[in-house]
Specification:
By secondary structure, the protein is α/β, with parallel strands linked by helices. It has a single domain, classed as Response regulator (Rossmann fold), CATH 3.40.50. The chain contains 5 helices and 7 strands. A 5-stranded parallel sheet has the order 2-1-3-6-7, sandwiched between helices. A two-stranded antiparallel sheet has the order 4-5. Helix 4 links the parallel strand 6 (93-97) and strand 7 (115-118). The longest helix is centred in the C-terminal third of the chain and has 17 residues, at 123-139. The protein is globular, with a radius of gyration of 14 Å.
Length: 141
């Protein structure tokens, strides 16, 4: 079973994502905070096929990187993206966020996000991108 981690502080949105991906046969892990995301990554990181990350997150301590809740929390999400990339360089990371900011998009892609999708995008669009990236990972691309 494919395992995917969604990191987003929007619990209502996460419920919809959980239902959609679970019905498609995914083992869905949910983290609504940086602390929860780090805990999940410590225990499940090697088994996760993809991470979907909202870069607007509340304050969080990311392994010594204290990220202030500035720029609408953008620094927290980008710091978490950097940390995930350091620990799990082969896991595809997709950014799925409300932030419409070219600078944030450039930073996310430069930090290793495979794609930057702005909400509101359809769950089927997100699903198709996740499927594509997992397939590419399995092929070694």
């Amino acid at each position: 079973m494919k395992k995917i981690l969604f990191i987003d502080d929007d619990l209502i949105g996460l419920e919809d994502v959980f239902d959609f991906f679970a019905l498609a046969g995914y083992d869905v892990l949910i983290a609504e905070s940086v602390a929860t995301a780090i805990d999940i990554l410590k225990t499940e990181g090697a088994n996760i096929q993809a991470v979907v990350l909202d870069i607007i997150m509340p304050y969080g301590d990311i392994s010594g990187f204290n990220s202030n809740n500035t720029a609408m929390g953008m620094r927290t999400g980008l710091a978490l993206l950097d940390r995930i990339r350091q620990l799990y360089p082969l896991v595809p990371i997709l950014v799925f966020t409300n932030l419409r900011d070219n600078e944030a998009k450039e930073k996310a892609i430069k930090s290793g996000a495979k794609i930057y999708i702005e909400k509101p995008a359809s769950l089927s669009e997100l699903f198709n991108k996740v499927e594509e990236f997992i397939a590419n990972k399995e092929k070694g691309e």
